[in-house]
Amino acid sequence: MKFIPFQKYTLYTRLSTADVKQRLQQSLAFRSKWFGVTYDGEIERDAFTIFQVSSLGFPGWPDISGRFSAADRKTSIDISIKLPKLAFILGGTALAFLLVCFAGILWSNWSRTHSLRSTAIGALFIAVALALVYSAITVNFLIASARSKKFLRRLLEAE
Known about the structure:
This protein is α+β, with helices and mostly antiparallel strands and 159 residues long. It is built from three helices and six strands, in the order E-H-E-E-E-E-E-H-H. Helix 2 runs antiparallel to helix 3.
């Protein structure tokens, strides 16, 4: 995981590809609740996309996509978990706002006081705000992706 939260892993199950597809369809057809979270999504021939839905009906984190294929009496499921586009939009907006504030504070303090100390204090506040926004997004992603991994392991009887 670098700066943008993203996970990629492979599950193996003794279920056939048809059984995997059927279990995914059944769990998503009724917007089933697993571990207190509702999941929704779509399934194609050998691929699927799943996302969490909050109780208010808004999509939550993370977006899960995967492909399944048969391999040696097992089914291999390659899964990637990533932030949804909405998270990038909100995170980018927050980042842009904080950077504009950062530039404004630096310019205002420097042009008024020509003091490096007051300018550094303003910059420190903005840096802390940036770190808090990033931390909130990352921690939320890690918690939700762990919950999604459990959901998929249990649903697909993964090894």
